[in-house]
Amino acid sequence: MRDLANLTAVRVPWNKGKVTGAEPPLQPKHVWSIRTKLQIEGRVRDLAMFNLAIDSKLRGCDVVTIKVEDVAANGYTANRATVRQKKTGRPVRFESSEQTRQAVDDYLKVAKKRPAEFLFTGRRGPARSMTTRQYARLVSGWISRAGLDPRLFGTHSLRRTKATLIYRRTGNLRAVQLLLGHTKIESTVRYLGIEVDDALAISEQVDV
């Protein structure tokens, strides 16, 4: 009798060894470090994907299914875009910074993508989007380039980065809720990891 282990191929989970729990946001210096390294290495697609992930604040499953027409319907990356979230089915709008627009435009010139095509494709061919597994592996590599531990940081770190900065600088929780596409404000509070001390720190900056 053959061993069952020989009959079934065992796939190693992409997140094996990762520390469970909320993935912290990146600091601005880490964002710039990753951008610089991707630029120096000439990784045009990765730079476009990284910048777009930071600006869009989308979940990984939504980042990989962005189509060209979602962000560059007229051939050039627009200032703002709307994407329907896979998890909630609700549309969410986001802005693209100048450096993100430039990175995506550079990538579109090289990749020669058509409007109806997925912006980021993987090994499954041009007609199918990159998988979230492939995306997670890319993010892990980017994180390592910044000298961070890929077991602690991941795709949600990218989603949290700009949202966390906006909250810390403005204290506007409702705005962050809209940008993240959360249906409940409580979800945003949990997602950002807001504690009483955070709220008090914001309150201390306001004089009446």
Notes on the protein architecture:
The protein has helices spanning 4-7, 28-40, 44-56, 60-63, 68-71, 98-111, 132-145, 155-170, 173-180, 185-192, 196-204, and strands at 80-84, 91-95. The chain has 208 residues and is mainly alpha-helical. The chain has a two-stranded antiparallel ribbon with strand order 1-2. Strand 1 (80-84) and strand 2 (91-95) form a beta hairpin. 32% of the residues are buried.
Give the SSE map.
Elements: H1 4-7, H2 28-40, H3 44-56, H4 60-63, H5 68-71, E1 80-84, E2 91-95, H6 98-111, H7 132-145, H8 155-170, H9 173-180, H10 185-192, H11 196-204
Helix pairs in contact: 3-6, 3-8, 8-9, 9-10
Looking at the structure, what is the overall shape?
A: globular
Beta-strand residue fraction: under 5%
Sketch the major β-sheet.
2 strands, antiparallel
Give the helix tally. 11
Structural class: mainly alpha
* Termini separation: 80 Å
| Topology, number of strands | 2
Helical content (DSSP H or I, runs of 4+)? 40-55%
Any key phrases for this structure?
mainly alpha, disordered N terminus, 208 residues, globular, single chain, 5% strand
Summarize the structure.
Helices cover 51% and strands 5% of the residues. With 208 residues, the protein is mostly helical. The protein starts with a helix and ends with a helix.
